[in-house]
Amino acid sequence: MNDAMSLINELHSEPREYLNNYLANAPKWLLEAFKIVNLKKSTTFIHENETVDTIYILVEGVVKATDYRVQEIAYDYTRFYPVEVFGAMEFLMGFELYRTTLVTETDCRFLCVSKDQFSRWMLSDIHAVLEQVKAMGVYLLEQVRKERLFLFLQGSDRLFLLFMEIYRKSSHRGTCRIQLARKDLSNSTGLCIKTVNRCVSQMEEKGYISREGRAIIIDEEQYRRIKAVVAEKIDENEI
């Protein structure tokens, strides 16, 4: 068994099952071509407008996508959790350059392969193509809906929505620990740091969140309360 398959077998059930399905028809040469890459927190591993040369498959950790196009203001417009394939969208859409900047928000582990090898596989495996297109469609739909919501939400409502999304994707045994600096929360919501500080303090005072040092803690009951607040502002089908 090669290193890539050994790593996949060590993953938690959900990412392991996804990768086993995604790679169900993958040829032996592709599995042997994968390299395991470990990156530390706060590493920028893809820069917007650089040539697409490597495909990264996130198997452990959290990655954020950052946009700098408006007056060089950083906007962390989404976060990715395992399993996510970076570079595949550019390949399928015929782009030669990466379309966003990606930064590790935690220590991360990836399976990496060259674009040429990924292309050779995709062009011979319709199952993998359909799985990739489905994943892209889900992501794009979620992103468009989120941006529409942010257009009309203000202040604490944006933070409530952000916390709800993070809880859903990263809670463990009913508890979510959010270790984002105020600047990160500002970049993720489009709110100034002063507004973020005020909103976080109000949320803590009202019991929507708890604090442990610099970390924000959300338990299952707090998540339900946050979800109820969001439901008052947003159509239930969007939650």
Key features of this structure:
239 residues; alpha+beta; 49% helix; 22% strand
Description of the structure:
With 239 residues, the protein is an alpha+beta fold. Helix content is 49%, strand content 22%. It contains ten helices and eleven strands. It has helices spanning 3-10, 13-22, 28-33, 88-93, 115-122, 126-152, 155-170, 182-189, 193-205, 220-233, and strands at 35-39, 44-46, 54-60, 63-67, 75-80, 84-86, 101-104, 108-114, 175-178, 210-212, 215-219. A four-stranded antiparallel beta sheet has the order 1-8-3-6. Strands 2-7-4-5 form a four-stranded antiparallel beta sheet. A three-stranded antiparallel beta sheet has the order 9-11-10. Helix 7 packs across helix 10 (220-233) and helix 8 (182-189) crosses helix 9 (193-205). The longest helix is centred in the middle third of the chain and has 27 residues, at 126-152. It is elongated and about 55 Å long. It starts with a helix and ends in a 6-residue tail after the last helix. The mean pLDDT is 91.
